[in-house]
Amino acid sequence: MTIGWDLIANGVSAPEGPTLGPGGWVLSVCSFTRDSNPDVVGGDIVATHPDRPGDTRRLFNTSADGVAGIPAALAFGPDGAIYITDEGHRAILRATDQGVLSVYARSPNGPNDLSFDREGNLWFTDPWGSSMQDAIGGVYVLRAGTEVLTQIASGLAFPNGIVATQEELVYAETRTGRLWRHRRSAGGRLGEAELFAELPHQAGVETQGPDGVARDIHGNLYVAHFGAACIRVLAPDGTQLDPIAVPGRNPTNLCFGGPDMRTLFVTLDDTDLLVAVQAPHQGSAIQFCPSADKTWAYESWLDLIENSPAV
Question: Is the distance from CB of 112 to CB of 141 less than 8 angstroms?
C-alpha cells in the first residue's frame, strides 16, 4: 500500500520508541550518537509536536553514573512517570516530570521494548546480546505493586517489540522474523507461546525482521519491518494485509496518535527521521497515554516539554 507521509522530525539520532505524550507531543529516544545532528546525542529523550514539524525539544539524557545510555522505548506508567528501556544500563529507568531518573528494574541482558496492561503490569523484552547463534533473549513481566520479575519466554533470538492487552500478549523475535502470541484467560492466566506470524524474508538484506508493534481497534497488528521499508499489517489471525510503505529501509518502531488516532508515527533508523503516515484504521489507545486518557492528571509534563531547549 503506497501512502503519503509527512516529516515530523529529522536528524533525530538513531530514533526509536515513539510514544504519544501530553498535548499531542510525540516523544522518542535517540539510541546512539550520529553525525546527522551534532545537537542530538545517544541517550537523549526528545519531543516533537506534529503541528510544528522540526520543532524538537531535548527533555533529558539517560546517561548517568558513568554509563552511556542506550534507550530503546518509552511508555507512560499509571503513576504519570515515563518508563524507559535502556540497554546501556541493562535496566528499565523511571523518569519524573522533572526529568529525574532512577532505576526501576534491572534485567538479565538489557531491555528493548515495553508495554503496560490495564492493571499496570509491565511486560518487556530483554534481547541485548542475543543472536541466532546465542539465543539468550527473554520476555518478562513485572507485576504491578511488586518487585517480582517473572520470565515469560526464553531462548529467543533478539525479542523486540511487544504489546500486552487483556486478551493476549504478542512480541516480535527479530532474527527469526517471527511474532509470538500468548493468549490470556479471563483471570489473567497466560497460555503457552504460539506462532502468530512469520514475516517474508527480503533477499539480499543482511539485518531484517520485526521490530516495534502497535494495535488498532480491530485487533490488527502493525509491525515495523526493519530492513523491508514498510509497516506490515497483520489481521487478528496473523494473515498479512497490505503493507504500508515508509521513507526508509529500517523502520524501528511506531505508535498511533493524532486527533482521531489514525496517524502512525514511525521512527526510521537509516534516515534518522520521525514521520507520520495515515493508517487504514483507528489505533487502540495506549494504556496510561496522556493524550488518550481523559483522567490523566500530570500536566506538569507539558511544562517540561515546552520549556526544554530546542535542538
Answer: no
Q: What is the pTM of this model?
A: 0.96
Q: What is the pLDDT at residue 239?
A: 97
Cα–chain center distance at 273 = 15
Q: 46 and 311 in contact (C-beta within 8 Å)?
A: yes
User: b/e map of 115-140 (b: 16 or more CB within 10 Å)?
Assistant: bbbeeebbbbbbbbebeeeebbbbbb
- Please check whether residue 265 is in contact with residue 276, taking contact to mean a CB–CB distance below 8 angstroms: yes
Contact 86, 101 (CB under 8 A): no
DSSP string, the chain: ----EEEEEE--SSEEEEEE-GGG-EEEEE-S--SS-TT--TTEEEEE-TTSTT-EEEEEE--BTTB---EEEEEE-TTS-EEEEETTTTEEEEE-TT--EEEEEE-SS----EEE-TT--EEEEE-TT--SSS--EEEEEE-TTS--EEEEEEEESSEEEEEE-SSEEEEEETTTTEEEEEEB-TT--B---EEEEEPPP-TT-SS-EEEEEEEBTTS-EEEEEETTTEEEEE-TTS-B---EE-SSS-EEEEEEESTTS-EEEEEETTTTEEEEEE-SSPBPPPTT-TTT-TT---THHHHHHHTSPB-
Q: Of 69, 11, 60, 77, whose CA–CA distance to 40 is shortest?
A: 11
Closest by CA to 127, choosing from 165, 81, 166, 73, is 73
**Residue 1 pLDDT > 60, yes or no?**
no
pLDDT > 80? residue 302: yes
pLDDT at residue 125 in the model: 98
Q: Give pLDDT, residue 296.
A: 84
Q: Give the chain's domains with CATH numbers.
A: 11-210+281-301 (2.120.10.30)
Task: For residue 278, give the nearest of 260, 256, 263 by alpha carbon.
Answer: 263
Asked whether residue 36 carries a pLDDT value surpassing 80, the answer given is no
